[in-house]
């Protein structure tokens, strides 16, 4: 149950795709929140005991809302949908919700964990890490292209005619693919078309990492 007058607190890093998902959902749900930076790259603030007390996995994001702390981006998104159903970020029918989850799972299981910066230490050198990341990112984008070409060829959104969790997962991942991994997104024309359209949506314009980074300086 929402606590009247309470502002949510989002522990976040501007460049984190998982953080962007939650940030976008909060804005889409028109919820007031305060963002607190956890620098996971240079300062390694996620490794501190104080942050571990907030998030046992020592990752971002974490969200304090309704007097509780939630971790893992998709858990947070589902909680927001369950407790604040309007405006909805899920389509109306079981089939379309299943299509949404196909897109979501392709991103959160098939791409994002396999390109995480935390994997770098598992490789002998940067070249091996880069090759691994590009392979699985491209494989995931191929899957997304095939899925979206079947269900969203003439749409602005991934599923149906509304913003859903599928879009909220797609945009940050494509942003990373282009910016961090230098992948030519035009190889995936349906993905590229939807991504470019969604970037103009107020939800993504307001929560874009470049804007957040600028605001935190």
Q: Can you characterise this structure?
A:
The chain has nine helices and four strands, in the order E-H-E-H-E-E-H-H-H-H-H-H-H. The chain has about 220 residues and is an alpha+beta fold. It has a four-stranded mixed β-sheet, covered by helices on one side. It is globular and about 45 Å long.
Labels describing this entry:
217 residues; alpha+beta; four-stranded mixed β-sheet; 4 strands; globular
Produce the secondary structure layout:
Layout: E1 8-12, H1 17-28, E2 33-37, H2 49-52, E3 62-65, E4 68-71, H3 73-83, H4 94-108, H5 126-151, H6 165-179, H7 189-199, H8 202-207, H9 209-216
Helix pairs in contact: 1-3, 1-6, 4-5, 4-6, 6-7
Query: What class, by secondary structure content?
Result: alpha+beta
Helix content: 40-55%
Largest sheet: 4 strands, mixed
Number of strands: 4
Low-confidence stretches: none
Average of per-residue pLDDT values: 93
- Mass-distribution shape: globular
Instruction: List SSEs in N-to-C order.
Output: EHEHEEHHHHHHH
Distance between the termini: 34 Å
Roughly what fraction of the amino acids lie in strands? Answer: 5-15%
The number of helical runs is: 9
Question: For the CA atoms, what is the radius of gyration?
Answer: 17 Å
Order of strands across the widest beta sheet? Answer: 2-1-3-4
